[in-house]
Amino acid sequence: MRNTATCRSAIILGCTGSIGITAIKGLSALSSPLRIRALSAHTQAQKLIDSAVSLGAEAVCLTGARFSDFPVHCPADVRRYDGPHGLRSMLEDIHADVVLNGIAGADGLAASRWTLENGMDLALANKETIVMAGSLIENTARRNSCSIFPVDSEHSALKALIDAHGRERVSSLVITASGGPFRTIPMEKLYDITPEQATAHPTWSMGRKISVDSATLANKGLELIEAARLFSFDSSCLEIVIHPQSIVHSMIRMVDGAVYAQLSPPDMSLPILSALAGGVLPGQGVKALDFTHISLEFEKADEKRFPFLALARSCIKGNDALPIVFNAANEVAVHAFLARTCRFPDIYATVEEALARGNWSQYIEDYEDVMQVDASARRIAQDILSEKHV
User: Fold this and answer.
1) Any known ligand binding at 127?
2) Pathway it belongs to (predicted)?
3) 181-196 burial: b if 16+ Cβ within 10 Å, else e
4) 223 is in an annotated binding site
5) Residue 179 annotated as lining a ligand binding site
6) Is 214 annotated as a binding residue?
C-alpha cells in the first residue's frame, strides 16, 4: 500500500450522486489534506463544473452526455472528457493515489478496471464490480500493486474488524440490514407497493435504484456475494440480521465464540473518508454515539419475505456467471418497476426466472465473458417482463 503520510490525491467518479456528494462534504473532516485531481458525473454538467471549480480539479468527465449538449462554461484550465471512452482517457491521463468509484450499477465495473490498470488504489462503492468480476478485479489489483478499499458501510466495517482481530480467528461474518420500509407490511400488500413507497428508505438517503434494492433486500443479496468474494468466506459462514436502527454495520463471530461489532451513526462519511485516506481515517469521521439515547434491536431475516437472500446464497455456491445474472436481471426489473411496468414482487420473480431459464454454465475467463453474460441476462430479463404483459 502506498505511503499515506504525505498529501494524497484522489479522483471522484459519480460526484453528483449520494456517495460523491458525501465524499465532497466530508473532505473538511480530514486532518491531512486530500487533493482532488478529477471528477466525473453522468449528466449533471453544471454541478460537475461547479464542483471542479470549487475543489480545484484539473479534469472532468461527463459520462452520459456531451458537454456541448449543455449551455455551461468550463474554465480553460479544466480538461474536459465525454462519454465512457472519455472516462477511460481521463483515468489514463490523470494519476491519483486513489479513485473513489461511486458510479451506480454495472456501468461501474469498467471504471474499476481502468482505475486498477492505471496503477491507482480503488475506493469501491460500486458493489457490482466485485459481484460481477471479483476474481478478475482482484487479479488486476495484484498485477498492478494496487489496494481495494470497500466503501459499503458493511464491508468497510468487516474489513476493519478482520484486520484488527486476524482472519484466522474469525469463524463467520454478520451483516446487518435495516429491513427497509416493508419489513412488517402484510405480505399480500406487497403487490400494491408504488415506486414512491419503495424509494422512501427509513434510515438512509440513497438513489432510487439502490433504495428499491434495499426494500427488496436484493442489496443485501449483492452484499452477501461481495463479502464472500472480498473476504473468502463460504456462504454458510455469512449471516444477515435485521437491525432497523442501522447503527451496527457489521459484526464478526470469533472461533472462541466472542462477537465484535462496528457501531456508528447511519452516515456514509466514515467508510468513504477512510477509503480515501488509505484505510485509516486521519480526523473526525462521524459524530460519536451517545448510548443514553439509542436503542438497538435485532431480528432474524425472514427469507420468505426477502427471498433474494436465499437466491444470493445459491449464486455464491454456483459458478461465477450466476452473480452476474443476479445483478443484471435485478437492474432490468428494478428499472421496470420504477417505470411502473412491473409490480414490486415481479422484481424477484424476474431474477429467479432469469437464473433458471438461461444456460449459465460458461467459465468466466476475462472481462469480455463478464459483459457477454451480463448482456444475455438483460435480454432474458426483458423477455420475461415482456411476456408478463402479453
Assistant:
1) yes
2) Isoprenoid biosynthesis; isopentenyl diphosphate biosynthesis via DXP pathway; isopentenyl diphosphate from 1-deoxy-D-xylulose 5-phosphate: step 1/6
3) bbbeeeeeebeebebe
4) yes
5) no
6) yes
Same domain, residue pair 250 and 159? yes
Give CA–CA dist 151/130, Å, rounded. 12
Do 222 and 214 contact (CB within 8 A), yes or no?
no
Q: Global pTM?
A: 0.91
For the stretch 170-203, pLDDT in tens is: 999 999 999 988 988 999 999 999 999 998 876 6
Q: Is 211 annotated as a binding residue?
A: no
314 is in an annotated binding site: no
Residue 18 is labelled as binding a ligand:
yes
Inside any domain, residue 176 = yes
pLDDT of residue 277: 86
Residue 155 is labelled as binding a ligand: no
pLDDT score of 207 more than 70: yes
Last residue within a domain, chosen from 90, 116, 151: 151
CA distance 295 to 205: 21
249 is in an annotated binding site: no
Q: Is 16 annotated as a binding residue?
A: yes
